[in-house]
Amino acid sequence: MWSAVAFVALSSTVAGVSGALVNFQVAQPPVVPSGVKTCTHSLLERNFANSYYQPEIVEYVPPTDCGAPGSWTAITLNWTATSNGTQYDRLSAISFHNVEVWRTSTPEPTLAGIIWTYLKDVTLFTPLFAKPGRLILDLNNIVDPSQGITGEYFVRLSVTFYASNLLHPPAKAADTILPLSNFSPDQANYVSVPPALDTVLTFPRNSVSAFAELYASGNSQDEEFWYFDTANEYIDKLPSGAASPRGPYREVRLLVDGQLAGSALPWAVFFTGAINPLVWRPIPAYGALDLPRYYVDLTPFIPKLADGLNHTVTVDIISAEDDHATNQNWYVSGNIQVFVDSTSKPTTGKITKYSASPYPISQVTGSVAENGDVNVTVSATRSLTIEAEIVAGSGKKTLVHWSQNLSYVNKQTFTDDANSQTVKQKSSGTSVSLHNGIPVVSDIFSYPVDVDFALYPDGSGYTVVFDHTYTRSLLPNPLTYTTNINSYQHANGSIWALPTGGRTGNGTNINSFKYLDLHGNSYTRDVAVTNNTISYDRVGGSLAGSPFQFVLQPAGRNVLDAARLPLGRASRRFGSGF
Ligand SMILES: *[C@@H]1O[C@H](CO)[C@@H](O)[C@H](O)[C@H]1NC(C)=O
Ligand SMILES: *[C@@H]1O[C@H](CO)[C@@H](O)[C@H](O)[C@H]1NC(C)=O
Ligand SMILES: *[C@@H]1O[C@H](CO)[C@@H](O)[C@H](O)[C@H]1NC(C)=O
Ligand SMILES: *[C@@H]1O[C@H](CO)[C@@H](O)[C@H](O)[C@H]1NC(C)=O
Ligand SMILES: *[C@@H]1O[C@H](CO)[C@@H](O)[C@H](O)[C@H]1NC(C)=O
Ligand SMILES: *[C@@H]1O[C@H](CO)[C@@H](O)[C@H](O)[C@H]1NC(C)=O
Ligand SMILES: *[C@@H]1O[C@H](CO)[C@@H](O)[C@H](O)[C@H]1NC(C)=O
Ligand SMILES: *[C@@H]1O[C@H](CO)[C@@H](O)[C@H](O)[C@H]1NC(C)=O
Question: Which Pfam families does UniProt cross-reference here (predicted)?
Fold first, then answer.
């Protein structure tokens, strides 16, 4: 069923930017109850100009106007920001009580200005919102008019609490949330790897289960486009500078005292400067405003972790090369939701089966043609099974069966002296954890990604085509319920030099998005844009009338900034020297 949705005219007065282009990531609105009392509080308002290593720091105190702290039925954050000028996409993260709760990036602005809002359900972090603590929002931005880099990001962050009542009980919450963090009191709480993020933790002795959430994103010349990195074995078959080494396989690992506890294959996030910024305006790629997280059931390790001693929990990123090394850099962090027994008696038990190898099984194949064309394929699989018996102080016994099967293939082609490069990658897998036979974690995903890049034969421009699908059925932990997301996005465009100097270009982006959860909430959105103008936008599903859905772009507004294109944070191999 399709229902028309009125255009929401977003306040044109925010930060004095009038007629700003509304950017939005296609995503479901947060699922929150209606008809309950809500209380919204501003957390911060900050203009990020030259803000490198100068995050905004907020001393949070839990409000009591929507009931006792921790009694809320839901919590959402509202990030609304504006920017005008020319600027790169910037990474930003919010950490709270040293726990990263949101990783995002900034859409590149236009000269006339952009505005975007993203609403995020953060109910899983209720224990953090229930007590006073420090919130850090880092957004490392640089303004340098001499280089034409002028855009500042004006960010407003607010929190909304939904009061509980008889119909809507307080949200389920873990007993403790442990950070996987550098514990910085005044800087970003994620850590640059390699080598690794090691967090030394002591778990409560009566811990009975623990669920990890991991954040990971690739950055910089070599790792922002990690899926384009080429296996070492073939790197010297390519013209120099055509690709970065260390291959395209990336795996996020979680280890307990050096032993693998679980893995994830990351989603390839295209930030809004990815190769051609015009294709991501005003619709960023899936995940650019709310980077996906990865989940591992740590419960099998509870008998070890709850022994009262220190343990090292490690997050790292590996490749499928012989030395498993990656380039610099990835930013990683995470948290562990810990549940304790009703008694204070220590938990006992043991791992009864451990079948996992530290690294995946992988293979590199390829061919080199006489004309210099190169094809390289990297494939990998990994399986893991960990079983454990957990005996709580109260006597309750839990049999845990945690199992993962992940598979990966990436085919790269280089033609025309590597001026044309294509990548076809597919990461997919199934991870399930059963506690006494009941699924408490489940992550079934498929992430096909296809990027075709070609320089014009005369070198005067380039074309890029992106095609990617995020299909994921996810139960991250027992605090919530299964959601199913299918997000298909196709984007393409060109950038070319103008005879008068400068550059111009075009971009299109079509999206087909479906959300369905275990409670029957649904949301669909089909929206397409060409050269900044929405050509169609159809919204359906039970959440379609939600006042919280992401704002729509009034059709017909805004033209390309012909005078000055924003910068594409393309690595040197894309349109270099152009
Ligand atoms: C952004 O817009 C404001 C308000 O119109 C203006 O004063 C400022 O110069 C603009 N900044 C840039 C970098 O264009
Ligand atoms: C645990 O580690 C912390 C700091 O990393 C240290 O201060 C503490 O003494 C250690 N405790 C034990 C029992 O080793
Ligand atoms: C690379 O693979 C394509 C098919 O995808 C094939 O047409 C081409 O000949 C291959 N090139 C090389 C160098 O093997
Ligand atoms: C992984 O594969 C094995 C072997 O096919 C199977 O027994 C196991 O159930 C699979 N695990 C998951 C989570 O799909
Ligand atoms: C998109 O913009 C480019 C550059 O201004 C222009 O050449 C092209 O005709 C436009 N395409 C469409 C479909 O509007
Ligand atoms: C973008 O420009 C290229 C090169 O002129 C052209 O082939 C393509 O059709 C254009 N796309 C759109 C959407 O205008
Ligand atoms: C570019 O996207 C448009 C739809 O937005 C599509 O019609 C066209 O075929 C695409 N071009 C390429 C080369 O994929
Ligand atoms: C989000 O915050 C912005 C800026 O404060 C505000 O204009 C907007 O109405 C808020 N959106 C929702 C759904 O609360």
Answer: PNGase_A_C (PF25156), PNGaseA (PF12222)
Ligand 8 centroid distance, CA of 575 (Å): 39
Q: Is residue 321 part of a domain?
A: yes
**Ligand in closest contact with the CA of 528:** 7
Among the residue ranges 210-224, 398-412, 429-443, 452-466, the one predicted with the least confidence is: 452-466
Ligand 5 pocket check: which of 110, 531, 558, 564 to mutate, most ligand atoms within 8 Å of Cβ? 531
CB of 504 shorter than 6 A to ligand 6: no
In terms of Cβ atoms closer than 10 Å to its own Cβ (0-12, 13-18, 19+), residue 357 is exposed
Q: Per residue in 486-539, pLDDT tens?
A: 999 999 999 888 888 777 889 999 999 999 999 999 999 999 999 989 999 999
| Residue nearest (by alpha carbon) to ligand 8 atom 13 | 548
Residue 471 in any domain: the answer is: no
Is residue 564 scored above 60 in pLDDT? Answer: no
DSSP structure class, residue 65:
B
508 lines ligand 7 (CB under 6 A): yes
Relative to the CA of 493, which ligand 6 atom is closest?
Answer: 1
Look up residue 489 and give its two tokens. 């996005």
Q: Which ligand sits closest to the CA of 563?
A: 5
pLDDT tens, 430-452? 999 999 999 999 999 999 999 99
| pLDDT score recorded for residue 18 | 54
Beta strands, E only, 266-419: 294-297, 311-318, 330-340, 348-355, 361-368, 374-391, 397-415
User: What is the number of domains present in the chain?
Assistant: 1
Q: Which of these, 422, 321, 423, 414, lies nearest to 368 by C-alpha position?
A: 414
Domain, as residue range, for 499 = 4-454+479-573
- The binding-site residues of ligand 3, defined as CB within 6 angstroms of any ligand atom, are 367, 369, 373-375, 413
- Ligand having the closest approach to the CA of 532: 5
Structural domain includes residue 464: no
